[in-house]
Amino acid sequence: MSNRAVVSCAILGASGHGKVIAEIAELNGFSEIHFYDDRWPELALIEHWPVSGNSDTLIRRVHDYANVVVAIGHNVTRMNKYRTLLEQGASCLPLVHPSAVVSRYAKLGYGTVVMAGAVINPFSCIGKGCIINTAATVDHECVIADGVHVSPGAHLAGAVEVAEATWLGIGCHIKQRIKIGSNAVVAAGATVINDVLDNQTVVGVPAKPICPKE
Ligand SMILES: CC(=O)SCCNC(=O)CCNC(=O)[C@H](O)C(C)(C)COP(=O)(O)OP(=O)(O)OC[C@H]1O[C@@H](n2cnc3c(N)ncnc32)[C@H](O)[C@@H]1OP(=O)(O)O
Predict the structure, then answer these.
(1) Of 56, 70, 74, 184, which sees the most CB atoms within 10 A?
(2) Which atom of ligand 1 is nearest to the CA of 73?
(3) CA of 117 to the centre of ligand 1 (A)
(4) ipTM for the assembly
(5) Are the beta carbons of 85 and 12 closer than 8 angstroms?
(6) According to its UniProt record, which protein family does this protein belong to (predicted)?
(7) pTM of the complete model beyond 0.95
């Protein structure tokens, strides 16, 4: 019989994003992964990992887990779920893929996940519940607020500031010292050379605002 202690991690959201987080949790030594999802009990398995309940079940069981991660892509929803779980006393540690490079001088908030190949350079500060996705780079002295998603392959130059719940799309580029407002969207492949307002969506190279749909 093995003497290895079981270290359990709960993941809320049985999604593709959740599968990536599950593997990162395993690589960080979490030997037991339980998913929770509101499609339970119809959804009982995601790949080989069990779905053990819904959001309400998880709220009752947070103390059973050494770590609780929310794997929901929608930024505001993810932050609301974290808020509820933390109120119940959940431990929501940051999770970092072993191949990511996170400076010893960078800070990561609770519930933030850093995917494979990402780089976070010195004196950058990443808020709570952020996603720094595959091969994204956040250079020196950036300030990334809570609930921001930096999509795969996005690159932020030095001293960029991004406010709450903003989504930086796949492969975008952000010039140094740019300020991006809250709940904004930077489109896939955009290059941002001017500040972006709260709630604004910008697309293209160079990035320009588009009007919200009626
Ligand atoms: C691991 C993962 O999978 S992480 C997820 C990574 N995914 C992403 O990063 C996707 C980011 N999302 C986008 O880029 C989206 O296209 C958005 C959010 C910017 C816009 O989406 P929607 O609101 O649905 O807008 P819609 O598709 O109707 O496009 C609106 C207009 O913007 C244009 N547009 C949309 N996206 C882009 C883009 N990336 N670059 C240039 N123009 C764009 C459209 O052509 C359209 O123009 P038109 O009005 O002249 O026809």
Answers:
(1) 70
(2) 4
(3) 25
(4) 0.98
(5) yes
(6) Belongs to the transferase hexapeptide repeat family.
(7) yes
